[in-house]
TrEMBL record:
Organism: Nocardioides marinus
UniProt xrefs under Gene3D superfamilies: 3.30.390.30, FAD/NAD(P)-binding domain
Amino-acid positions noted as binding FAD in the UniProt annotation, renumbered to this chain: K52, G99, D290
Family: Belongs to the class-I pyridine nucleotide-disulfide oxidoreductase family.
Keyword terms, alphabetized: FAD, Flavoprotein, NAD, Nucleotide-binding, Pyruvate
SUPFAM superfamilies linked to this entry: FAD/NAD(P)-binding domain, FAD/NAD-linked reductases, dimerisation (C-terminal) domain
Protein name, UniProt field: Pyruvate/2-oxoglutarate dehydrogenase complex dihydrolipoamide dehydrogenase (E3) component
Residues involved in NAD(+) binding: G165, A166, G167, N168, I169, G170, C171, E172, E188, G251
């Protein structure tokens, strides 16, 4: 077996791993990056970038083929040279193959040319991310369904599409395909779409999707799926659904069961790797990104990578805080959130006050005929804002001011003393703050 020595091994190269490998190499460390598929991971090739390009084309009234052209351009036709070249010019050595931990600081990689044992003197940064999780619905496994790995190669919007799962991926793509011309049925087993978000947010998005002609069915279990060569048929409690294509968007499976966690004393059956405030997970092991369970977002992977890099470089640096994590679902209107929802705050035993305001109750919302709602969650005693949601056009941008507030633990009275430009969407935030009564 070939043996390679280095300072740091990056195992799995998603967004955080890519950033960390480059930064560590530029700081003078020797770095080996191990990747089984495409360097850069889910976000640029099968995630954020292609989905947002599809959403953009749909919003602008363009065709699926024009979206496909820009997706091929952005992904370099699913080649990762745009990611490997900057890494290699920073000095990172890339080893292609499936890697497994083999004790502290060691990774064994199965490459096309045989096994390679890579030893990292400082350690290993784990960034193995997730794959689509496919539910065990009878008949599904034998059918040509799509997940996020296939859907962005589509050149034409199908006449009809069934979408299984109404989380971020399901809602974003159901709306995009609807606007690109497909007749869409969105099937969700839970009682509401976008269930982790505030109920007010789910309600607005469900209403908008239905107004756009999407058949949204919640509390719907699919009992069986079949494909007759041209069409899917889904058997559900609320009747059969026939569609030309089926997109499965029912959650993610972390890449943790086959990475040798047991060789460093961790549980290989766990769904996340627990990390401390420096993103350390075990002896000479750091972990970043989706596998840490702090939010499956690109910005989380990058945030944690920055922290792990400081620690690996033995520098004084920031430690990880998670009280003000922000998130955006890129439906129209966008669903943005930061910190705790009302339900999460109550589960933690906080005495909370909430304030809400409808977007169309504000001059800008009325002018733009926009749907949406802003909700602010604050600690009743201190007045500190602990969470907020913004469902609005540019909600992902508007939430920025509330992210600052939750991050800096500002109070409702402090925020109410601000100037809010007229007539902007963010003036709705002022109304929601006032509605808290603080
Ligand atoms: C359709 C879709 C849309 C999304 N949109 C957004 C969005 O708008 N905004 C946002 O913030 N997030 C979005 N996300 C989530 C985002 O893509 C992820 O959170 C992000 O990619 C960070 O993931 P990661 O760094 O944990 O690793 P990943 O990107 O999952 O990369 C992990 C890498 O590790 C490799 N790997 C795994 N196991 C091994 C192994 N044993 N050996 C070698 N290599 C291995 C994989 O091949 C992969 O390349 C979206 C996701 C999807 C699917
Ligand atoms: N804009 C963004 O930041 C963005 C966009 C897309 C994805 N992501 C990330 O990717 C992750 C995965 O997204 P996702 O949408 O696949 O998963 P998800 O876990 O967010 O949603 C999956 C949905 O499918 C439903 N479901 C599960 N099994 C089902 C079944 N058999 N029938 C019907 N419904 C079923 C669940 O109740 C849930 O509502 C998210 O956690 C998110 O962090 C982020």
């Amino acid at each position: 077996m070939r043996q390679v020595e280095t300072d740091v091994v990056v195992l799995g190269v998603g967004s955080g791993g890519e950033y960390a490998a480059r930064r560590l190499a530029r700081a003078g460390l020797d770095v080996v990056a191990v990747e089984a598929r495409l360097v850069g991971g889910e976000c640029p090739f099968w995630g954020c970038t292609p989905s947002k390009l599809m959403i953009h084309a749909a919003r602008e009234g363009r065709t699926a083929s024009s979206a496909a052209r820009r997706i091929r351009e952005a992904t370099h036709d699913w080649h990762d040279d745009g990611h490997t070249e900057p890494m290699e010019s920073a000095g990172v050595r890339i080893v292609r193959g499936h890697g497994r931990l083999d004790g502290p600081g060691r990774v064994r990689v199965e490459t096309d040319e045989g096994s390679v044992l890579v030893t990292g003197r400082r350690g290993v940064l784990l960034n193995t991310g997730t794959s689509p999780a496919v539910p065990p619905v009878a008949g599904l496994a034998g059918t040509p369904y799509w997940t996020n790995r296939e859907v962005f190669g589509v050149e034409e919007a199908p006449g009809s599409l069934a979408v299984l799962g109404a989380g971020n991926i399901g809602c974003e793509l159901a709306q995009a395909f609807g606007r690109l011309g497909s007749r869409v049925t969105l099937l969700e087993s839970a009682e509401r779409i976008l269930a982790p978000e505030e109920p007010e947010a789910s309600e607005v998005v469900a209403r908008v999707l239905r107004q756009e002609g999407i058949d949204v069915r919640t509390r719907t279990d699919v009992e069986r799926v079949s494909h007759d060569g041209t069409c899917f048929e889904l058997t559900t409690g609320s009747g059969a659904v026939r569609a030309e294509h089926l997109l499965v968007a029912t959650g993610r499976r972390p890449h943790l069961d086959d990475v040798g966690l047991e060789t460093v004393g961790l549980d290989p059956t766990a769904s996340t790797v627990e990390v401390d405030e420096h993103c350390r997970a075990a002896e000479r092991l750091w972990a970043v990104g989706d596998v840490t369970g702090h939010g499956a977002y690109t910005h989380m992977s990058l945030y944690q990578a920055r922290i792990a890099v400081h620690d690996l470089l033995e520098e004084d640096g920031p430690t990880a805080e998670y009280h003000a994590v922000s998130r955006v679902t890129f439906t129209d209107p966008e669903v943005a959130g930061v910190g705790l929802t009302e339900a999460q705050a109550r589960e933690r035993g906080l005495a909370v006050v909430v304030g809400t305001a409808e977007v169309d109750s504000s001059p800008r919302g009325w002018i733009d005929e926009a749907s949406g709602v802003v909700k602010v969650v604050a600690d009743a005693g201190s007045g500190v804002v602990v969470g907020a949601s913004v469902v609005a056009p540019y909600g992902g941008e508007v939430v920025g001011l509330l992210s600052t507030a939750v991050h800096a633990r500002l109070t409702v009275p402090t925020l109410r003393g601000m100037h809010f430009a007229y007539p902007t969407f963010h003036r709705v935030v002022e109304r929601a703050l006032r509605d808290t009564g603080l």
